[in-house]
Amino acid sequence: MVRINMKNDDMFRSLYRMVEEYNRLVGPLTEHLHIYDRWNEIESPLLRVAELNDDVLKGVTAFDTSLADHLSFMTGPYRLLLENVASIENMMGTPFAELVHPQVYVPGITTALTTVAATSEQLAQIARPSSGVAEIARYYTQILNDWHIDLGIISSFDSSLADSHFSQLVGMEKAVAGLSGVMAQYDQMTCVSTQIASLQQIGLTDAWKRALTPPELLLGLNDFALKQYEQIQKAEDDQSIAWRLGLIDVASKLVDIQVAWGSEIAVDIGEYVPEAELVIPDFSDLPVILGPAKRDNRDVSEAFEESQLMLITCAGKLIIQKAKAVNDFCKARQMQLLFPESDLVDCAMILGGAFCRDADMLNVVLDTLSKMFIRKPVIDLIGQHRCFGVIKQHQSTNESNKKLITKIQKDIYWHIIGVEDELIKHFAGSDVTIFEEDKVSANVMKALLNVQKDKLYEGAKENNINDGIRNQLSIVYEVKDQTRQGESENGKDSGEVDIMICNNGNPEVIIEGLKLSSFESSKLDAHIKKALVNYDSNGCPLVYILVYATVKAFDDFWGKLIDHMNDYCFPYKNVEGMRDVATVYTDLRHAKAMLNRNGKNVSVHLFAIAVR
Predict the structure, then answer these.
(1) pTM across the whole model
(2) N or C: which end of the chain has fewer CB within 10 A?
(3) For residue 387, how many other CB atoms are within 10 A of its CB?
């Protein structure tokens, strides 16, 4: 205990109250927020100051009088979050627990354009704003699962929890699921409580959790859903019920898209922790933005996918992805990155979700774009682009017209995408293309690593893992899966290629995947034959054999694999035997052989990953 020798009793009591108030407010949160150590760093210096003479202490008492208010303001948003966590824990052991799937938010699938480093011809299609934005929108609608739960399961939820917004939500969902007007139309409905539970258990570091699932997001979604459920209970017609349930579904999708986006940034650039929190559009704007859908009796989800909200937020994501593509060019040339990754993380948190409806948000976006692009390294490459002046013109705007603010954001985004296209053209002379062997191998390895760490594929069947690999590669390449090609093992009809990568419709890469629980030479040989002979009637220059190993001693397994391949009798001339290719990973291995098929070289790559 620190002993304080001082004559100023009021000051002593003041400091003591300060510590006591802090412990009262923050003590219950320390496990979740890890800020107690931070307080200890502050506490000791304050107590040491208290030992000094009174002249040094002038003004400290005044500081103390406002500290409690500041602490309350700081911790206030986290209180309901803490109540949510407690509520979830209380519900464990009920059917609700089985619905919590935090792995949804770390899909391990690299977003569109992340690994792109290509010539201008290969980037031509995605360089156009409309097609690039559509690609990102299509990507997220494909990979994300909705939170539709059977009404019967929701009706069995235990809502006898501590009083909190979360318990109100659970109770309201339970009540709405039992309404005759809902039961008459639906078998399932979106269950926001299970989504919020999963969001709070997202499988990332604490720093990334705080960035991707701030209290404002959780409470905002919670309260928006509550309001819609209240309106559903008052609804007098089926159309109104459908409209409100549609709004809840859209809000849920919006959160999923943003958090999945942020999670993939975390996976891709995880060493940097964002200072900015993930931006989520204001939920209260959704009824206004999607109002025409109700008027025209359209499906709310379809209207959402076609809305300006989706268009602009996907354009923001495209800006980040193109910046990463430019960085890929820089890496290929061993140049300093044009967009430092630590800055790019914070920019991604803002641009990937900002939908400007007021001047404050627009200024945040413009400041972010200015930080990214109005910089000497960019200007040295393409000069003073005309959109830089437009950004400066609108910075610090006081505009209040919501539609005009949104239009300004959209127009500037399109200009910025044009700037990035010019940067890509500047690098277009690079010899690195997405079909070069090293680039294909890098993209295949990245797909394998993402599948390996994705809990969705734990215990998955061989074909499902192949699907995961295909989904990731299809973002960069024209990919065909289970294609009828060549002849089957019995030689009678066409066989099926696991994955084929094409260039303008022409086969370039054959990929064959197999799952092994132990070393099985006959199964391995059969798949190699399928890839090199049965299914490769064209003679593709690159062949990849992917082994998904559920073995205990992965190192021993790899040794047996290499020994076998060194003795393997390939169907074509062996120019260079199977040799190890160094990787930095313990549970992923890579080897390569070179064959000669009718006077042309064929590279055969063998990858093995340890999976559960």
Answers:
(1) 0.59
(2) N
(3) 20
